[in-house]
Amino acid sequence: MGSKKGSSLGEAQIALLDEDGASSIRIALKEDEEEELGRRVWVESKKLWHIAGPSMIGRVTNYAILVITQAFAGHLGELELAAVAIVINVIVGFDIGFMLGMASALETLCGQAFGAKKPYMLGVYLQRGWIVLFMFCVLLLPVFVFASPILKFLGQPSEIAELCGVLALWLIPLHFSFALQFPLWRFLQSQLKAWVIAWMCVIALVVHIFVSWLLVYKFEFGVIGTAAAVNISWWVLNLGLFIYTVTGACPLTWTGFSFQAFNGLWDFVKLSFASGVMLCLENWYYRILLLLTGNLENSKIAVDALAICMSINGWEMMIPLSFFAATGVRVANELGGGNGKGAKFATIVAVVTSLIIGIFISTFIALFHTQIGYLFSTSKPVLQQVNNLSLLLVFTILLNSVQPVLSGVAVGSGWQSYVAYINLGCYYIVGLPLGILLGWVFHVGVMGIWAGMIFGGTAIQTLILAFITTRCNWETEAEKANLHVRKWEAQIQPQN
């Protein structure tokens, strides 16, 4: 009996030890998994920030050129501020939206080619980008030439529209600079040379501040001086990037000018056009908000206040747009290399990182909502209206911390044409009519227009993109990317 009892006790102890051992193994495995996950997040974050960090510096300083231009104009007078705000946010914003969108095709092509270890294809893609964007610069030139009658037709006050027309003519050199700069930017980013862009943008910003002071205050050229300063600083940036690229800094990807850039040009135009439509539908959305506000009563104050909010939002938007670019490159690199799981993981890390930053900035705006307008104006009615709009600005920043990153996934995966339809439906079939309904039918004014466009358009579009991304079969996307690279490679022969 004692023996059996001892035996039973021994078996119980062994079972307990076995259970403890299994539990320890499970704990150890869980710890190993957590360590492995932490290591993967750290590695992916470094890759992401290697692109997003310098891109953020570049985009913030680049956009600061336009913000500082509005700040100089704001201290010249309310009319000058309204005119510069409309030209930059509507005319130039319309232009940037389309040209930037068309250039984003290079993020898909260059990113996937670089990931597939085909660096010689990038230089040909760059030249195709220059050709296509220059052609569209010529096609879009009437927007600048006839800016004044266009704005009058859209309901802007005659006095503001006339001054906008003069400024738009002065900004034609800026318009053509986009055809050179935007492809160069994507070409360098795709091969992880984003720091070059960042340093050149900082130099251009310093030049802009000095030239703006010189032309506006020293030589007293007034509002025309602000436009001339933008042209000068932007071309300093362009020439710096161009000289860096063609003088031997990119030996594997730039092998000189080639007639191969004209091969397969139509296919490139189609992809670029789809990319342009995708981003410009989104970019124009908030420009239309500014135009609609111009038709309200006391429109000068409303336009000035909304322009200030849009400038703050646009400046902050450079951060999620940096993650847009970085996510596009990372997803394209992983898909081009045949790693679908890597593309999915890069997407998750990018969305979470951008959202955390968005929450922080939204909180900052909410805490200092009464002070943010002083950077642009000292007019009490304008500052009061900015304070009233600050809550909507907070929601806009929060939504925009996620939506551009998901658009970056679309660009890296080559989904531009599908997302263009989503943007069209969400923004112009749902959001815009809802904004008009709240603004005029329910007489909520500029707050109603903006609120309807945020919650009716941007929020729904973000939810749809999130659904598509979570339901994506990444291994299938990697196979598609491989087929695309081989298709485009057939049109390009390596040069010695």
Automatic annotation (TrEMBL):
Question: Can you cite a GO biological process for this protein?
Answer: xenobiotic detoxification by transmembrane export across the plasma membrane
Query: Transmembrane segments in this chain: where?
Result: 56-76, 82-109, 130-154, 160-182, 194-215, 221-244, 345-369, 389-411, 418-442, 448-468
Keywords from the UniProt entry: Membrane, Transmembrane, Transmembrane helix
Q: How does it sit in the membrane?
A: Multi-pass membrane protein
Q: What is the lineage of its organism?
A: Eukaryota, Viridiplantae, Streptophyta, Embryophyta, Tracheophyta
Q: What is this protein called?
A: Protein DETOXIFICATION
* Compartments where found: Membrane
Q: Does the keyword Lipid metabolism apply?
A: no
* Pfam families on file: MatE
